[in-house]
Design brief:
With 208 residues, the chain is mainly beta. The chain contains one helix and 15 strands.
Amino acid sequence: MFQLHLEVQTIHPKKGVTSSRAWVSKSFVKNFLHLLYRNMGSISSHNAIDIEGNTRNNSVYDPTNIFSLPMVQGNGRVYAYSMAQEYFGDDVGILVGDGSAENTALTYTLHQRLYHDPDNDLEYMGGAIGEVTVDGADAYFDIERIFRNESGGDVVVKEYGIAVLNGTYSGGVYPYLIIRDVFTEEVDWVTVADGEYLKVTYRLLVTV
C-alpha cells in the first residue's frame, strides 16, 4: 500500500514547537501521472501543464535532480532558495499558499501561492530530501522545508504542495505541481505568527 502523509509544525525560536498537525494526504494531481507515465514508458514526447498554466512538451528525460539546488548531505539531498537560481527557489520543492479552492482533475498550481517575500509573507528557506528508511513492513522517505515569518503580522496557511522540475534539453526546464493538499475548514488552517518558523514535511510511505 502506498500512502502520502503531511505534517505541519510552527516553531518559535525560543519557545520551541507551538503547534503540530498531521494528516493522511490524498492529493496527488494529474501532473504526477503525466510525468510518471512519460518516464516509466520512455515516451518520446508528452505534454503537461506547468505551474504557470503553460502547456509544455517533455520530450527528453532531464537527468538533473527534480528539486532546485541539490547538494549532498549524508545519504540525503538538500535544496534551498537562491536568487542566483533564477526563480526556481519558490517554484520548486514544497510550496505553501493561503487559497482554499478545492482540487479538480485539472489542478496544476496552488490556488493562492505564497511566494518568497520576507517583507510581506513568508521567507522560503532550505529543505531536505531524506534517505529511504526501512522499518519493519514500512519503507519511506521524507521531503521537508522550513519557512520563516518576519513580515510583522500573522500568515495563515491553507494549502500545501510539491512541485518538481522537468523538461527538455532544448526547450527548457519548468516546474510542475504533482501534489496539492488544501483545507477548506478554518479548524485545519495553520497560523504562523510573526517571528515563527513553519516546518512542512511530506512522507512517501510504502507498506508491504
